[in-house]
Amino acid sequence: MSIEIRNIQKVNKSTFANQQTGSAFFKKEFSFSRKITDKKKVFIYKDMATLLRAGIDFKSALTIVRDQQTNELSKNVLNSILDAVIKGKSLHEAMDKTGYFSQYEIFSIKIGEETRMLDTILDELQKYFQRKVKLKKQIISILTYPAFILVLTFATLYFMLTYVVPLFESVFNQFDRELPKLTKYVILLSENFSAIFIGIIVCMAAIAILYNTVKKRVAYKRFTSKFILKIPFFGKLVKEIYLTRFCQSMALLLVSKTSLTESLNLVKKMVGFYPIEEALNTIQTDIEKGATLGDSMSKFSFFDKNMTSMVKVSEQVNQLDSMFQNLAEHYDEEVEHKTKTMGSIIEPMLILLIGAIVGVIMIAMYAPMFDLSEVIGGN
Q1: What dihedral angle (degrees, nearest 10) is formed by the CA atoms of 286, 289, 295, 299?
Q2: Of 292, 287, 285, 279, whose CA–CA distance to 246 is shortest?
Q3: CA-closest candidate to residue 246, choices 224, 277, 215, 223
Q4: Taking the model in full, what pTM does it have?
Q5: Helix (H, G, I), strand (E, B) or coil at 216
Q6: Does the pLDDT value for residue 166 go beyond 90?
Q7: What is the C-alpha separation between 118 and 110, in angstroms, rounded?
């Protein structure tokens, strides 16, 4: 979705009157159960920034963006924001009241209003969510193919253990011959497959319940983050994903002239990864005591030496916002490269996994057939 500047006209008083009359329903309190997606936010912020740069007054721009929404939730939320703004609320206050925008967005908008840089901040928010959407797509691209292959593997295993193995078993039972151990194990697995499947489902449910119980505990966050980061290749990818988020968030807040300590406090809440949260707690304290950001970051191995050295240099020339933007682009390119590499590695490995499972079952079933052919030939 995008807007055409040539079709924009100022909204006159009658337009606002019709809007207020036709939107009486929207003036009521709403209780939405869904979320405004990051992709929707990209278009909302992009269109608002474009309209404001074109010289359209704020209320008219917000009205145009609202009318362009095809999603009912987005339209309702923007309508409630517009009503609040017409009644005298600032944009960040109206957004905060809806409950559909993060403190990160609200604080950025607040700074943009106070510094009269709202169009710039909206443009930066659009870029932030655009990068976030791109990152999500990259992660999904890694997981989609393996998930499909795993489902296919399970379906193949189910078919063979439920239908193929029992056919062979009925043949083996007609002959009084000792079966190989591998064949016995496969037959045993086939006979108890339903119970094993139920057990797996119960275990997965128990793990999900346990995760929801302990996911906010510091000890759990510390253990899982250390474990993930130690996984070869994947751990480095996860690290770079969170470094990308950190740099993107810092770049946006610093561009909006947010203070460094306030930026660190907001980023700590937004990134959601324990090593960064733990580091930022210490970094924030150090900065309040007079230390520089680069020196404080260098205490933590999670931040690359390249990043800390670049931050130190950018602090000296007062270009910290530009440096974080460049670092965000750098890590974003690294993540994109690694996701493609991981995809090319995972695909053949999963194909080999399916082949190995099918091969083991077929060997287990056909191995006794050679003995049976000797018995039949002797008879």
Answers
A1: -30
A2: 279
A3: 277
A4: 0.66
A5: coil
A6: no
A7: 9
